[in-house]
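User: structure tokens for DUF6328 family protein, please.
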Amino acid sequence: MRNESDQERADRNFIELLQGARVAVTGVQVLFAFLLTVPFSSGFARLDSGDRWLYYTALVSAAVASICYIAPTAQHRVLFRQGRKETLVRRSNLYGILGALALAASMTTATMFVIDYLFDATLALVTAGLLAALALWTWFGQLALNRSDQSPEEESSDGSPVSSSEERRP
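Assistant: Done. Predicted tokens:
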């Protein structure tokens, strides 16, 4: 365990959450900006109802991901010097998870939208299913298995696993 107060731990956790969100926010913003331009292209008018719903899902889920990833920073401003950092850390973690789910939905449906336009619905559906499965596995599933395999005492202070033969340091 680290030799830090509860407040110091909350500060460190919040900074770590924000650093992680910075990586995702850039990608979400680029995807969202691209999606905002699509209806203004000449071919958009020719889309059928199914493709329009795919586009709608991709656009709205990118907006939700953006909101979730930006929320911790906005809430930090509102709660500044209110002594609510631990609440903010827990809430920010939840927003990060929701943002990742929304980003996975947006990436999957945006890819499905484009592949359906370029090729056919079957290839689009298969590709989207594979992408969704990959995102869910790498972002959540694999980690859930790791978490269930270890008790909290078996992790180092930075969250990495500690083997039973390793000495635990303060």
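User: Anything notable?

Assistant: The radius of gyration is 20 Å.
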